């Protein structure tokens, strides 16, 4: 019986006839990490899986929160939220959605071993009031719960139990389970088949609770890591849509009468992060960690000619920044957006004053398939650091190889991008990245940075309902991180999508998440 629902959906698609079915071929820049949305806290993977799984609430195309699996909600006390669930919703296998599924999902995502627990930092517990009412308790007054819940997708409890999957998986640690390769959501599309690194096929869910705005019967998701191959496929019509159009090829794509290009800057800020533990993993300095010296961190900052990086590596399309969050993110402060000037002699003097007149070696961990033009900007910066007398060893590899190393803290300097999603608030960066590791705090603090004073301010901001006071607390922490050169900001990365002219109603929001349930094909 559990397969009957999916078989019925596939049969409904087949009856439309292959010639009549509307198929969207999505050429993606990389494969998703897992079919389990709790397995890896990565925006891209979650955005793809949002076509299959849904949360209690969701963002609209203009990033406003609206009901999804919850029809309404209210606060019954400063620490308790009550959600009224949508009735008549079915999972893809035909099971009925109810409060039990919400309780099981929240328990799974907040498990101490969950890599996504940082996306629900204030969660304490939840309880079932009746089959369609759930109360969620947070650990203090917390204004961002709805923002968090946009990316906490709901699983079918019976399905989890039947497949021994109540415990979360972890892509970064290589921990897999049944949900790694199988899905059962409530969303607008059902995964019909999957060949990792080759093709994942989605078909329309004919029993979706929402009123579809799309007319897509089938999505063929194909990872094409080569930018040149992806562009050629777009120009030839082999793919209809890509969510990463290579910057260097935009003029060529725009010149094609059969292709449309959408461009903007996304919310994601890109920076370098230091290993701040006792010693480096790959260095000719064996007895200490040079990055613990503020002068060394400032030297690396001043050695970067950001205008040259922007012009050459980013094709003039990125936005240079000295701040750790984008202007659209609550907590951004224009006064923090200034960068120290490019100063190569000054960088060399700082290194000499710190005791490294001849520089030192270290590993720079970058990924070949994650951030926009990451390989190019990492190569450019490594060259600039070399001119300052440093000896960076650029380790460039796919995310599948570098991600687990980063999780284990096996790097000296890493490239890093943070979009502050799903919160769309600086508290996301503060609690998940800057906060020291403690409970749901510091989940992505892999380099041992941060301190108790910053933690106290972050914790205070997390329970402050007065928006003005909360933003000022966040600005204080961001200024401390800036003054300490805890990270080296680079830019807000550009975002470019390309599609055939047959693809219509594409909504490109600054969170860089395709919402193909809003898209139509001619």
List the topology elements:
Elements: H1 4-15, E1 23-28, H2 43-49, E2 57-59, E3 65-67, E4 70-77, E5 80-85, H3 99-109, E6 123-130, E7 133-138, H4 145-149, H5 157-162, H6 178-181, E8 189-195, E9 199-204, E10 218-223, H7 227-236, E11 241-242, H8 250-255, E12 259-274, H9 294-302, H10 306-313, E13 319-320, H11 344-353, E14 361-367, H12 374-387, E15 391-397, H13 399-407, E16 413-418, H14 427-434, H15 452-461, H16 467-483, E17 487-500, E18 503-504, E19 520-521
Parallel strand pairs: 1-10, 14-15, 14-16
Antiparallel strand pairs: 2-3, 4-5, 5-7, 6-7, 8-9, 9-10, 11-17, 12-16, 12-17, 13-17, 18-19
Helix pairs in contact: 9-11, 10-12, 14-15, 15-16
Describe this structure in words.
With 522 residues, the chain is an alpha+beta fold. It has helices at 4-15, 43-49, 99-109, 145-149, 157-162, 178-181, 227-236, 250-255, 294-302, 306-313, 344-353, 374-387, 399-407, 427-434, 452-461, 467-483; strands at residues 23-28, 57-59, 65-67, 70-77, 80-85, 123-130, 133-138, 189-195, 199-204, 218-223, 241-242, 259-274, 319-320, 361-367, 391-397, 413-418, 487-500, 503-504, 520-521. It has two domains: 4-227 and 501-521, Periplasmic binding protein-like II (D-Maltodextrin-Binding Protein, domain 2, 3-Layer(aba) Sandwich); 267-494, Roll (Dipeptide-binding Protein, domain 3). The protein has 16 helices and 19 strands. Helix 10 (306-313) packs antiparallel against helix 12 (374-387) and helix 14 (427-434) runs antiparallel to helix 15. The protein starts with a helix and ends with a strand. Mean pLDDT is 94; it is low at 1-18.
């Amino acid at each position: 019986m559990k397969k009957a629902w999916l078989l019925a959906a596939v049969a409904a698609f087949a009856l439309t006839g292959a010639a009549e079915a509307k198929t969207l071929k999505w050429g993606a820049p990389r494969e998703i990490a897992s079919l389990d949305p709790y397995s890896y806290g990565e925006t891209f993977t979650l955005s793809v899986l949002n076509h299959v799984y849904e949360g209690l609430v969701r963002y609209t195309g203009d990033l406003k929160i609206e009901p999804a699996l919850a029809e309404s909600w209210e606060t019954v006390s400063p620490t308790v939220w009550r959600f009224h669930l949508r009735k008549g919703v079915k999972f893809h296998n035909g099971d009925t959605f109810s409060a039990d599924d919400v309780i099981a999902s929240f328990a799974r995502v907040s498990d101490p071993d969950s890599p996504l627990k940082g996306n629900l930092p204030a969660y304490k517990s939840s309880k079932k009031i009746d089959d369609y009412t759930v109360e969620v308790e947070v650990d203090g007054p917390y204004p961002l719960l709805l923002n968090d819940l946009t990316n906490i997708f709901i699983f079918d409890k019976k399905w989890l139990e039947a497949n021994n999957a109540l415990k979360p998986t972890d892509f970064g640690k290589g921990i897999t389970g049944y949900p790694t390769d199988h899905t059962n959501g409530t969303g607008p599309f059902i995964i019909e088949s999957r060949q990792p690194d080759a093709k994942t096929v989605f078909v329309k869910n004919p029993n979706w609770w929402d009123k579809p705005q799309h007319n897509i019967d089938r999505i063929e998701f194909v990872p094409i890591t080569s930018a040149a191959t992806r562009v050629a496929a777009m120009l030839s019509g082999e793919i209809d849509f890509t969510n990463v159009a290579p910057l260097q090829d935009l003029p060529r794509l725009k010149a094609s009468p059969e292709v449309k290009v959408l461009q903007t800057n996304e919310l994601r800020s890109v920076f370098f992060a230091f290993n701040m533990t006792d010693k480096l993993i790959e260095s000719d300095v064996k007895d200490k960690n040079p990055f613990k010296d503020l002068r060394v961190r400032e030297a690396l900052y001043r050695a970067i000619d950001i205008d040259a990086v922007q012009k050459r590596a980013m094709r003039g399309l990125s936005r240079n920044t000295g701040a750790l969050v984008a202007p659209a993110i609550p907590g951004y402060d224009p006064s923090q957006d200034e960068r120290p000037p490019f100063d190569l002699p000054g960088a060399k003097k700082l290194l000499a004053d710190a005791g490294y007149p001849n520089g030192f070696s270290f590993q720079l961990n970058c990924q070949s398939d994650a951030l926009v033009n990451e390989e190019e900007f990492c190569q450019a910066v490594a060259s600039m650091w070399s001119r300052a007398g440093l000896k960076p060893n650029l380790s460039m590899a796919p995310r599948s190889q570098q991600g687990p190393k980063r999780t284990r803290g096996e790097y000296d300097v890493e490239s890093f991008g943070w979009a502050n999603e799903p919160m769309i608030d600086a508290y996301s960066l503060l609690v998940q990245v800057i906060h020291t590791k403690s409970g749901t705090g510091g989940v992505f603090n892999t380099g041992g940075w941060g301190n108790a004073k910053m933690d106290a301010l972050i914790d205070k901001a997390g329970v402050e309902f007065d928006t003005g006071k909360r933003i000022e607390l966040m600005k204080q922490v961001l200024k401390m991180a800036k003054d300490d050169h805890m990270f080296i900001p680079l830019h807000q990365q550009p975002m470019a999508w390309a599609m055939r002219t047959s693809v219509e109603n594409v909504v490109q929001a600054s969170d860089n998440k395709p919402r193909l349930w809003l898209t139509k094909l001619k």
